[in-house]
Amino acid sequence: MLGETPKYSFFFIIKDLVFGYCDLVFGYCDLFKRLAIPSSVTSIGDHAFYGCRSLTSLAIPSSVTSIGQGAFNGCSSLTSLVIPSSVTSIGGYAFNRCSALASLEIPSSVTSIGHSAFNGCSSLASLKIPSSVTSIGCYAFNGCSSLTSLDIPSSVTSIGQGAFKGCSSLASIDIPSSVTSIGQGAFKGCSSLASLAIPSSVTSIGS
Hints:
Helices cover about 0% and strands about 20% of the residues. With about 210 residues, it is an all-beta fold. The protein has a domain at about 1-125: Leucine-rich repeat, LRR (right-handed beta-alpha superhelix) (Alpha-Beta Horseshoe). It has a nine-stranded parallel sheet with strand order 3-5-7-9-11-12-14-16-17, with no helix packed on it. Mean pLDDT is about 85; it is low at about 1-20.
């Protein structure tokens, strides 16, 4: 059910009989660079494209509702990504160590960002978290060292442990009054952050 274009260009088209990708189905496939996922696919399973280090571009269709844990973990050549508005959850480590990912738009359908979802995305310079998100998981953006500013929407109630740890270029951040808890080391290593206002709604820090 895989086809490839002539002359070994490694552009793969997955045909319409596939409804989801299971664990590690394309894990460590270092050769292909582009991927077209058909509209028949509704979910991308855990570790489906783990370690596909040559993958540079990807089109996720609007039929997909969930991106599993570690789905694109280690796809270090992936430069840009559009997550469709059909996706409601981004699993832990989903884009962990996607170090070339420079731009990303999270749609307003997403309600939660999993543990270490964008950990180590060191080229990510801008990011908008939609107002649908209620929680930011532990280490979600750990090591996003190119991220300069961030607006946390008023829907967010908790910021997980180490959520923005090592975001060394982060110069400004607004924590809304909806936030009640900030995890341990959430902003550790944010060496460019000169000031931070913690709202009176916060009842626990680092516990």
